[in-house]
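Ticket reopened. Same input as before:
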Amino acid sequence: MKYIDEFRDGDIARKIAARLAEEARPERAYSFMEFCGGHTHAISRYGIADLLPPNVRMVHGPGCPVCVLPIGRIDMAIQLALEHGAIVCSYGDTLRVPASGGLSLVKAKARGGDIRMVYSAADALEIARQNPEREVVFFAIGFETTTPPTALAIRDAHRTQLKNFSVLCCHVLTPAAITHILESPEVRQYGTVPLDGFVGPAHVSIVIGFEPYVQFAIDYQKPVVIAGFEPLDVMQAILMLVRQINEGRAVVENEFSRAVTRHGNQNAQALMAEIFEQRESFEWRGLGEVPASALKIRLAYVQFDAESRFKLTYQPVADNKACECGAILRGVKKPTDCKIFGTVCTPENPVGSCMVSSEGACAAHYSYGRFRDIPVVAQKS
Amino acid sequence: MCLAIPARLVELLPGEQAVVNLGGIRKIISVALIDDAQVDDYVIVHVGHAIGKIDPEEAARTLALFGELAQSQAAAETSAAAKASA
Amino acid sequence: MKPIKKDYIRPLDIRHGCIDMGHGAGGRAAAQLIEELFLAAFDNEFLRQGNDGAVFAPPALPPGARLVMATDGHVVSPLFFPGGDVGCLSVHGTVNDVAMSGAQPLYLTASFILEEGFPLMDLKRIVDSMARAARETGVPVITGDTKVVERGKGDGVFISTTGLGVVAPGVDIAGSNARPGDVVLLSGTIGEHGVAVLSQRESLEFETTIESDTAALHTLVAAMLQAAPGGVRVLRDPTRGGLATTLNEIARQSGAGMLLDEAAIPVLPQVEAACELLGLDPLYIANEGKLIAICAPEAADAVLAAMRNHPLGQATARIGTVTEDAHHFVQMTTRFGGRRVVDWLSGEQLPRIC
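Engineering reply: fixed in the latest deploy. New output:
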């Protein structure tokens, strides 16, 4: 597969790893946060950690939209299905997230809720067209990559005057989340979150461009390298970050130049601006209320806003006390620092957000990397 | 969720749709979010939509740069650096 | 029960007819369905007796031989998919389960739960496919049952098959037999069945030429056992949950670990592409015509050669080794050069795939 296989070449990986070993200065530690869930997944799945020098550490950030979706929002989706009898269309990743009352979307389905997995917002629109006598709600989650398709669906629903379609909008914004991490209390309190730089998200950046990150680099003196989705991209980006640190630079660099431009996809941005506006504040699971970090549907399209249409109110729900997701999402703790990791909290029975999606730090570590936590004696004949 | 994949556009369809081919698999997707989609372009597909295109020259350049000593040219294009710090 | 005398009864309208509650009542309509659809397809000496059960002489059992029974329910959706259907799947599936004990399969039973309204055309297609599969494998369906449930309480048809086989003396194949140092062999490319079924799911709509690999593996197994008596320790077919789940099962049963080589695991390019597109991992996708064999190291070459010589094993690959590991991890060196755990399947990757 073109533009995929060449970026997974093991020989080149070893070359870059050798470069990293040469250039990472042994007397200091390097700590980089990868923000995008897709990067977290790639790092675990390809075992990239094995190829990094021991003093280069990757910290997993809150780039997994499923993981940061608060329980209260899933409760709303469940309410729509069980109490309002709506057909609730959702991406597959959201279906198993545990919500209140021991329920999840998949469990609500078992109780009779009409909950359907879709692969795109357009599928939900189609379901609405095929079921004119039913209310159909699309449970929209995701960062800026996933927002334009939702905007398109609302625009199309508006143009065709669809009367039974609405969206439960839980789209969140990347730059706000990164700022929040850099401003988090631990950073100020301990000054010890050793985040030296960021691996910037791949696909979000296709949409928003690399311009939005420029100010971070300046304000916080942290380099940002936008990295493509494949493992070689990630490794190259880490190398570029190490170089910036060594040279005392803090700028935005674009490793994913084959798909990301300075200004991004302006079509998509215009469409998002037409349909959505910023919420003042939005609760992120594990991070609390984050200002200017999420979108809601504009008044002009209010008939497509499920919260307004069904008069839903948001009820925040606290996470389990033993859950360390908040600290893990901010990069202050590792999955293995959490008391319930791998015992009470597993992918089968997730307690917190980081375990729910395969991109979450805990799930990724559990599924791909936990063998490193336990000394394993391997013998071959 | 961050799942986006480069695929070759093989056929344009009415209603801002297109057929892409990935390794022999064909799928109909929407191209409403990008400008000027052409047959043989490589587009990046996310949740059934093309969200951007691959620039073949940049792709070749990126591959060539992997592991090389030279600084990435992309660095030269981005904004000016902040003050150097030790 | 004596065979029903044939007064003239208008034959079943296969082309336009549907299953109705009468077909499950056990009366004349039911008997007609059995005679004109099922018996016509399966026709063998046991079924011709027309009894509720099949009576047969015990197979030859030399000292040390054992019997094996296996059963499988089939709820695949959709019922027809590229490369097969629920009918042949239900034959291959149970024949394979029996064969995975190193047994020679002898007989099958088949039970059908039919939904009211199910078209007879479709039922005939399925039953004919099943009968063809039974003939080709040489394993007859010797007894069966049909029931009908109300519309909405079934999904077209559910098929349950049970198989009986004989394990020759000296053959000891079990999931708990793997030992550190053993070689892990895989009989061919993975992921085709799951991708073929998925390609028919309306919500996905992708075009592919991938077909299900559904096939009966008993002759392949026989060839392997002959090539290296005592050398094959474990056999299993990676169906639901895929290669990853099956290897984890074996690791746990045997109290050992495994180390796989990703580059050695054969996957067709289209299957890789479909998985990329859908966010799936081929390691977790069901196969219906492949097997995993774990062999003693000294027997591996002979078994591999025998497999590659067989039409169903031409792409056999050596994919890893069994290791000593108290935690029973299945680990894998990635194509990329790193290492990762290949864990159990979490949740449900693909519903109704088998």
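Helices of chain B lie at 56-65, 73-77. The longest helix of chain B spans residues 56-65. Please confirm and we'll close it.
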